[in-house]
Write a structure and sequence with these properties.
The structure holds 2 protein chains of 2 kinds.
Chain A lengths: L3 E3 L3 E4 L5 E7 L5 E8 L3 E8 L6 E2 L6 E7 L2 E6 L8 E8 L9 E2 L3 E5 L1
Parallel strand pairs in A: 2-11
Antiparallel strand pairs in A: 1-3, 3-8, 4-5, 4-9, 5-6, 7-8, 9-10, 9-11
Chain B lengths: L3 E4 L2 E5 L4 E7 L7 E6 L6 E6 L5 E4 L2 E6 L4 E6 L8 E9 L2 E4 L3 E6 L1
The chains are: A mainly beta, B mainly beta.
Chain lengths: 114, 110
Amino acid sequence: DVKVTQSSRYLVKRTGEKVFLECVQDMDHENMFWYRQDPGLGLRLIYFSYDVKMKEKGDIPEGYSVSREKKERFSLILESASTNQTSMYLCASSLRLLSNQPQHFGDGTRLSIL
Amino acid sequence: QQQVKQSPQSLIVQKGGISIINCAYENTAFDYFPWYQQFPGKGPALLIAIRPDVSEKKEGRFTISFNKSAKQFSLHIMDSQPGDSATYFCAASWGDKIIFGKGTRLHILP
């Protein structure tokens, strides 16, 4: 089974801090994704990566950046955290960038910005 | 045009009943329609999926019905059980794009 591991389940940070969310997958998947999940808004794509050092903006990239230095690891960075970035963050991976490839999700990081 | 509209937002069903969640889309380029199930404290997981050349797909108690002309698809959960209580997301994808519905919180009464 594919395992996508997010380093923290809960995280509390302060406004203005630089925040790193880490994600690791163990199945040699090409693609990795970062989503944000908010009640009533569903899953919104922040960034995705289809290869090492490659990244593409999703629907809501403002205020975020990403890093993929190794195939198995994908990091989400909040450059200067703000209270409106309090949310559940989900990382996912898929084997290839094709429509019929399922995404495998981690269990999420619940981030609170005070 | 890239939205996937999901309804209802929440649903309460008696144990043994049929749960039905509906989704509608606009973009005819979508060629894969998965459903994801998410339990509290967990990430979403693929439940069942369908391609638009098929009108129905069944896996156990879970069935997707697909109406290409109406651009609608739905998830039916037969003999709903308390263990089915979760949030369900429909999605539509093509190429490297996937669009999720906003989710339905399903609660099955014991």
